[in-house]
Amino acid sequence: MNILHIPNYAPPHIGGIEQTAKDILDSMPQDCRQRLFCFHDQRKTVRDELDGVPVTRCGTFAKVSSQPLSACYGKELRKTFRAFLPDLVIFHFPNPFAAHYLLKNLKKYPACKLIVWWHLDITKQKILGKLFRGQTERLLERAERIVATSPNYLDGSPWLNKFREKCTVIPSCIDEKRLSRDAETDERVRAIRQKYAGKTICLALGRHVPYKGIGYFIEAAKGLKGDYAFLIGGKGELTEELKRQAAGDARIVFLGVLPEEDVKAYLYACDLFCFPSVTKNEAFGLALAEALSCGKPAVTFTIKGSGVNFVSIGGVTGLEAENADADAFGRAIETLACDEALRRKFGEAAKERAKLFTKEVFRKNVQALLETISPKEGGSL
Fold this sequence. Notes:
Helices cover 41% and strands 20% of the residues. The strands form three sheets. An eight-stranded mixed sheet has the order 3-4-2-1-7-8-9-10, with helices on both faces. It has a six-stranded parallel sheet with strand order 13-12-11-14-15-16, sandwiched between helices. Strands 5-6 form a two-stranded antiparallel ribbon. The chain is built from 16 helices and 16 strands. β1, α1 (16-27) and β2 (33-39) form a beta-alpha-beta unit. α1 (16-27) crosses α16 (359-371), α2 runs parallel beside α3 and α9 (214-222) packs across α14. By secondary structure, the protein is of the alpha/beta class.
């Protein structure tokens, strides 16, 4: 079976969609032939490999509303179809520019099956959503199966509800090996705990963009009294604005972009994990799942239709606050900070919950999905 994967980008580009695409690639049966086709974040088109799988990265000349634009994408995709003759395409949505060229090629290869991996609805770019409405409908009509990353997102998406009979849920996965503890990790954890001795360590990680809600976390932090360390990892377009918001409170510390070994250490060192995302743009929350795997209770907002509240269950693995209510978020932090037994209880439940998000479970789910794909006449699945 020839399988063509089409995400927006691919590792080493960092992002949830890119990581999921890599996890899918790793989950395929060994007798499959695979290719990966994506954008490059530079103008030049590059051909390389990802763990032995050939990759075509199409050069881009601009990005509009988070959508990369490429002058050579259509030609390169046509060449890839002609040379590789895919039996199955796994396409990651949203990616409307790529969807246009994919649909054109699928018309020429009717036996080729399509799985649409639906990461999120187009919500922020309302004009784009309306502009590509017809195209999105054609894409989902052509799809054999549609994958949602959580039942919450499936229930909350008008698009997925319209094609519900084609939908299946496969939660994203975390890399347990990445989170494994060793002597070096333990030493880093001890150093962090010593640096913030006597304080409740509250950790938030993520890009500093509006939907991540870091500003609400800062507002909540500044409203709390007591011995806390509010640690914020990552950076983004809002970093300087967030630093201005945090000014005057020495308990709020910006860690910047952390290397992988430090991310792991801070996850194990913190007392609770704060995940203040506020919109459905946060469709799942891999960092949240990682924190649960490390046994950390979580504080989240309740986001209707988002997988965040599927990953962490309010009252089981952590506490939820009314969406975008910084005071309520702060009260949830305070509740956990003042109750070590509750933190321990939620932490144990968190580790158990995280078993749903392992690579092995993900692999089994992906292979079970493949078994539901029936071949069309002339196909080779």
